[in-house]
Design a protein that fits this description.
The structure is a homodimer of 147-residue chains. Chain A has 147 residues and is of the alpha/beta class. The first copy, chain A, is 42% helix and 20% strand. Chain A has a single domain, classed as CBS-domain, CATH 3.10.580.10. In chain A, the strands form 2 sheets. In chain A, strands 1-2-3 form a 3-stranded mixed sheet. Chain A has a 3-stranded mixed sheet with strand order 4-5-6.
Chain lengths: 147, 147
């Protein structure tokens, strides 16, 4: 079982997509994450769902549970406001990290290790200069358990 | 909008559940993760889907992409074998880390920050000594976008 047996088409967003539209795509299609492509159509970043959410959380609240608690419920609107005004490009982490991207020859074990290591329930599959689709955690689990 | 408005019942596993059964539960119900409860019914751990997968990946492959690549496809069976013989207790990380657990008064902002920080698309909601359920990333996103 290789990535080519498990991959499927997957929606993409671009660096210029508004964060609010990216969030709506994730929610409406119940996606485990998003593939962000650059001008050439190749993955610039892969955002697990939890990290799409991070785009919406003001920085001063991300690492301070007490602060997030005292912000009262009216301020939940701040989350939406934070998503509305920004593009994915502005919200991406600046720190480089390993992207969950591999090719169609990747083994099931390789896909599993990559998802576990990058905390991503989504791996983009690229062959040469073309994005073929993605393998989701769900597809990998189903493939493994069907054996 | 608070956790009490967003929470729903959520399946649990125990420390003695076989990893293979935990994986089947995740796959069959398309869950974003699992709540592991202790003898008192309270969360001992929360496992995002990608970390359930980690339970199945041999340690020597987790951090070495090249090694996972050379293991040929026949050895994908090793993933299943690794899951079949072990319980969740044996497979949990030994390193303590912040659990995505909060109470029903948590604000949307607090839930979002907790999910982002712990990389968990699932937050267990506990009041006093009782597990009330969980808020999923999907429920939180739907709640925010419906405002």
């Amino acid at each position: 079982m290789r990535a080519r047996d498990l991959l499927a088409d997957f929606p993409t967003v671009t660096l210029d997509t508004a964060v609010i539209d990216a969030a709506r795509l994730l929610a409406d299609q119940d996606l485990p994450g998003l593939i962000v492509v650059d001008d050439s159509g190749l993955p610039a970043s892969i955002l697990p769902g939890t990290q799409v959410l991070r785009l919406a959380v003001p920085g001063y609240c991300q690492d301070d549970p007490a602060l997030a608690r005292v912000v009262d419920e009216a301020h939940a609107d701040a989350l939406l406001a934070s998503m509305t005004g920004r593009t994915v490009r502005e919200a991406l982490p600046t720190r480089a990290r390993e992207l969950p991207v591999t090719d169609s020859q990747a083994t099931a074990l390789e896909l599993a290790a990559l998802m576990a290591r990058t905390h991503s329930p989504l791996v983009a599959i690229v062959d040469g200069d073309r994005l073929l689709g993605a393998v989701t955690l769900q597809a990998l689990m189903d493939g493994l358990l069907a054996q």
